[in-house]
Amino acid sequence: MAASGESGASGGGGNTEEAFMTFYSEVKQIEKRDSVLTSKNQIERLTRPGSSYFNLNPFEVLQIDPEVTDEEIKKRFRQLSILVHPDKNQDDADRAQKAFEAVDKAYKLLLDQEQKKRALDVIQAGKEYVEHTVKERKKQLKKEGKPTNVEEDDPELFKQAVYKQTMKLFAELEIKRKEREAKEMHERKVEMVVWTAGETSKQIQRERKRRKTGPS
Question: What one-character-per-residue DSSP string does 90-158 give?
């Protein structure tokens, strides 16, 4: 994950917000051009700056709705994997390889029903968060005697808000996963150091005992 994506998920801030909206706009422009699938556009979409942030959502990687069937997921995977396969894009093989890996990873994740459910839960959580936020804002506006219209009343802006929140949730989960892995690795290293120190101490003790009991 790009560092900017991680900091944006956990810290927020004006610059991050602006960067996200620029990224969101660019992604949507690409998706419009992708109504006719092309290798160039798909490789660009899956490898552009910030793609590691975007690619955490397997449904977005494959450009499919969460409600699609497993058969539709397989069909979409075949389409995209052929388009971005390095053998088919030897003039841009390095980026094609990265794009192919992103597609393959998303597909394998969605084949695992437990992993798929986790992804669906994140998406649902993002939607529920936005719905709750909108409801609370409307309640506050009504309490203040103001019109209760909010920008998310526009279906496209509501969808954009859900998209944004969902990406943040995926990023936060990825950060926690990396932190957990780093902690576990540190703990394993500490255990190894302690074990090595113990073995060294035992060896020293045995050597001292041998010298005491051995011939003078």
Answer: GGGHHHHHHHHHHHHHHHHHHHSHHHHHHHHHHHHHHHHHHHHHHHHHHHHHHHTT-----GGGSHHHH
Task: With H, G, I as helix, E, B as strand and everything else as coil, classify residue 35.
Answer: coil
- Residue in this structure with the two tokens 């917000």, named with its chain if needed: 17
29 backbone dihedrals φ, ψ, rounded to 5°: -65, -40
pTM for the complete prediction?
Answer: 0.64
Task: Please name the residue that has the structure tokens 């990406």.
Answer: 167
Alpha helices in 13-92 (DSSP H): 14-33, 39-47, 51-54, 58-62, 70-84
**pLDDT tier for residue 124 given thresholds of 50, 70 and 90:** very high
What letter does residue 34 receive in the DSSP assignment? T
For 80-110, the pLDDT digits (tens) are: 999 999 999 999 999 999 999 999 999 999 9
The CA distance from 106 to 10, in Å, is 24
pLDDT at 121 > cutoff 90: yes
The distance from CA 137 to its chain's CA centroid, rounded to whole angstroms, is: 29
